[in-house]
Every structure is written in C-alpha cells, then in structure tokens.
Specification:
With 500 residues, the protein is mainly beta. The chain is 9% helix and 41% strand. It contains seven helices and 37 strands. Strands 1, 3, 4, 7, 8 and 37 form a six-stranded antiparallel β-sheet that branches. The chain is globular. Bound molecules: cobalt (II) ion. The site of cobalt (II) ion has 6 residues, from loops.
C-alpha cells in the first residue's frame, strides 16, 4: 500500500488498551478523557460497504492523567455489526449501502422501523450516561472505561432520524436537538426537543413543517432562537423504492433554494423563514444575535458547499485513489434579519475563509451562541483539494486571517479544543467585548493524525494560540479516519468541544 491517506481506510482488527509513548510535554492541567467515534472496518463479509460513513463503529479513547496518555479502542457491539459478521452481509440499511434484498424487501423497509444501530458518528453524554450516536434514533450506551457496549438507550425516539449534533446551552443548562420526520401519511418536517439537566427525557419544543424535509446534519443555536438550515437535498419516494440505501433516496433540487427556519426557543413558533440561493452544509460553526440598524439579526456561520456532491465524493471508491478530488467546503457567514420577510435578498452572506475547512470547532464552552473570534478545523493545502484532509487550520473570523499546522504525509482529524484550566475566567468575562479577546485561544487542540509513512496514528497536542506542537503520543496502529469526539475534563460536568 502506498504511504498516503489510503491507509486511513484500512480496517483495524485488534482492540488495544495501553499507555502511549509520548514525545514533548503534555500540559499538566490536561486531565480527562477524549472519546471519539468513527468506523473501525468497512468489511461486511462478502458485501462491500461503499461509503466512508457506512463503516462499523469503533470507539477510541485517550485518557490524560499526570502527563500520561492511555489509549483504548473497541468495536461497538451493535446488532448491525453482529449480523454482518454472522451472515456475511448487511442486515440493516446503512448510510449509503443497502442490505442485498429485492424490491419487496425495500418496500417493506420503507415502512419498517428497523433502523441501524451502527452508531459510528459521535459520542454524547446525558446525565451519567455515555452514548454512541448516529442519525438513526437508535442510540447505544457505552462504558467510558472499558468501552463495552451497555445496550440501547431511548433518546429522542420520536422521529425517523435524530441529529448527531445536539447543542448544550450553558446558560439554560439544557440540551437542544431535533429529529426529522419523513411524513408517511402525515406532514414531514422537524421536531425540536430539549433535555434539561437532571432529566433523561426529551420534551418537545416545537415542530417545523417542511414536506419533504431536507437532509439536515446540524443546526445553530442563539440565546433566543434555533436556526435550522435546510439544503434542497430531499428524499425522493420513488428512489427510495427503486434505488438503494438511505442517501441514494435523496436528490438535489436547487430550485427549492436553501431555507433558514428561525424558531423561537420558548414558544416553539417559527419567527421567520428565508430562502437563499442553494448550498449544502453538514456543519454549523456558531451563531449569535446582533443589533444592526435598529434591527435584530441572527448571524450564522457554517461550512458551505456548492451542492450535495460532497456526499458522492466521500464514497470509498472515490476516496481510495491516489489523489481524491474533494469539493471545497468554505466558511460562510449569513446575517438573517428577523423581519417576517421571505425575501432571500434580505439575507447577507460573505465568505470568511475561502480555503477548504471541515469538522469545525470553537471554544464552545465560552463562545457558543456569542460573538467569537476563532474557528479550528481540518483543511486542505490546496483549493480545490487534491488530497484527503492534510492540515489543521485556525481561522480568525474578525481579522479574516488563517494559520495552519501540517506535516508531509500526515492526515489530521477533527481538532477538539480544550480551554486551558489556568485561564482567568474573571478577566475573560470582563474583557468579553463580544468580538473575542486575548483568552479565547488559550488552550490546546487534540487531533488524531494519521502518519502514512510511519504507518501509525498519533494523538497530536497543539497550542491553539500559536498552532505549534506541544506533544504527540504514538498509537500502536494506524487508525481509520473517524468523525467526531468530545473531551470530558476530569471533575467537570460538561464536555468542552463544539456541540454537545
Ligand atoms: Co457531523
């Protein structure tokens, strides 16, 4: 195998738990657990899985204690994975690969509730429970120490799919999320819900009608509003019957435009809707309210693509080539007036950073729902990308400047920002002018990086203010490229990354 990104699509077999050899100095204040999720294998026996997002979940854990890093990895013991191992083919419909059955089977599944429990996308904590999540409503509880699978957890089980990116509001002390309803007799749309601290049950905030609903992967939160950004990537009933898989049932309908639904968090009522020229997005970065010319605007920052072709570009056959061509996701800012106008011209948009950036991260605990200054993410040295994601990027949204970290033949994953514990919280709130201040980037980024030449991955610890390396800890094997993770600081209740 060539020493390049393709190593990140090779399955892992072994499950390991060991203290990692470390170079450099891990900050002494860094104490806690980085839990990450992503595929461990794309092997379903004789049936090939076709998409990066289809792989069977494997949890990775990095535990920081007294300057040492302990690593562990373990496959999620899902029914979907067990079925594939036993029967040599899929038993459940994954993101882009369908079980091998005929038309009757597909018709049956249209009405079935047999969602996959292959929760390979993110982790989340509700109360004391640690959960592995995917867009299916089937959430799986895991033991954060042994990484054993504990069983199903019924969370947000009111809709056909549930977001993997619920948000936590540190002021209201509640988790906010949404699910998508595909209709099937009733009207399709989205159901907003909240889970207050101390509760394990979701209560419904409101409904947004949209039929058919679009593919919506994340959303934006401000103190008063939820903003749902709906790209014109919508289910086609006919394709669900004649086509295959979850995502092959969707089609790009640019004439619908992309819609912003702004919903009042208290009343659950839609305050305004705006339609803008079509774009696609997976990830929101941040949002906040701002007064301008006597009007209140909601400012939404997100990663925008020209269209939904990024989903096709992430098929394994396209990724496992020497230089995969990936579309550019750029950081865009939309300013949405709250007047009851549906005129898309009222929405201003600007590109903040034109290079590719994905898996965005902010100082979530201090800056989410507020004006802020720094975004971190994975990126590419070229636009359009001619390689898999090969650098980390830090974008100053105020000065519109960027700094990067990269090394030849290394491929970094999502950088999780952990604020420094030494940070003076009092001075932070005193200097919080709403435009960011000297302490916002006081912390580290944690990124799992594939070193293709060394044929191993390492956990990289970077100073977020200077974007220079502080330490790296070598894993005993190369890890398949994953998606999202959370850092749970020792003795702190809430995770510290972007989104819950
Ligand atoms: Co995501």
């Amino acid at each position: 195998m060539a020493a390049d990104h393709r190593l990140g699509f090779r399955p892992v077999r072994e499950e390991i738990r060991e203290t990692l050899p470390t170079e450099g100095d891990v900050p002494e204040w860094l104490s806690g657990t980085l839990l990450r999720n992503g595929p461990g294998t794309w092997n379903a026996g004789r049936q090939p899985l076709t998409h990066w997002f289809d792989g069977f979940a494997m949890i990775r854990r990095f535990r920081f204690r007294d300057g040492e890093i302990e690593y562990a990895n373990r496959f999620l013991d899902s029914e979907a994975y067990a079925h594939a191992r036993e029967h040599g083919e899929l038993g459940y419909r994954e993101f882009a690969t369908d079980p091998p059955t005929g038309l009757l089977g597909r018709l049956r599944r249209l009405r079935s509730t047999e969602f996959t429990d292959n929760a390979c996308v993110d982790v989340c904590r509700i109360g004391d429970r640690y959960l592995a999540t995917t867009e299916s409503p089937l959430v799986t509880e895991i033991d954060p120490d042994s990484l054993e699978t504990r069983g199903r957890y019924a969370f947000g089980d009111v809709t056909d799919t549930t977001t993997v990116h619920p948000q936590y509001d540190f002021d209201e002390r509640e988790l906010v999320g949404y699910g998508t309803r595909f209709g099937g007799g009733s009207t399709g749309g989205y159901t907003l819900f909240r889970v207050p601290d101390g509760s394990e049950d979701a209560s419904i905030v409101g409904e947004i009608e949209s039929d058919p609903p679009g593919y919506v992967h994340s959303f934006a939160l401000t103190p008063r509003y939820v903003v749902l950004t709906e790209p014109p990537f919508v289910p086609n009933r006919l394709a669900l019957v004649t086509g295959s898989s979850v995502i092959d049932g969707y089609e790009w309908r640019p004439e619908r435009g992309t819609r912003f639904h702004v919903v009042d968090r208290q009343s659950g009522k839609t305050v305004t809707r705006h339609r803008v020229p079509p774009f696609f997005t997976f990830h929101h970065v941040n949002a906040f309210e701002r007064g301008e010319d006597g009007r209140t605007k909601v400012v939404v920052d997100l990663i925008a693509y020209e269209d939904a072709s990024v989903i096709e570009a992430l098929r394994l056959r396209r990724l496992v080539t020497a230089s995969p061509s990936l579309p550019t996701g750029e950081l865009r800012r939309f300013s949405i007036p709250l007047d009851d106008s549906r005129d898309g011209d009222a929405v201003e948009s600007a590109t903040i950073y034109p290079g590719h950036v994905e898996l965005p991260m902010i100082d979530y605990a201090h800056r989410n729902t507020r004006e802020y200054r720094y975004v971190y993410g994975v990126g590419n040295r070229k636009r359009p990308p001619e390689d898999f994601q090969n650098q980390l990027v830090k974008i100053d949204v105020r000065e519109r400047e960027a700094e990067t970290w990269s090394e030849e033949r290394t491929y970094p994953g999502e950088p999780v920002f952990v604020p420094s514990l030494d940070r003076d919280e009092e001075s932070e709130s005193r200097n919080g002018d709403g435009n960011g201040n000297g302490t916002e980037d006081d912390g580290v980024l944690l990124s799992v990086v594939l070193d293709a030449e060394a044929e191993r991955s390492f956990l990289l610890v970077i100073d977020a203010d200077t974007m220079t390396e502080r330490a790296r800890a070598w894993c005993p094997h190369p890890l398949p490229f994953g998606f999202h993770g959370q850092f749970y600081a020792e003795g702190q209740e809430r995770p510290t990354r972007s989104m819950s």
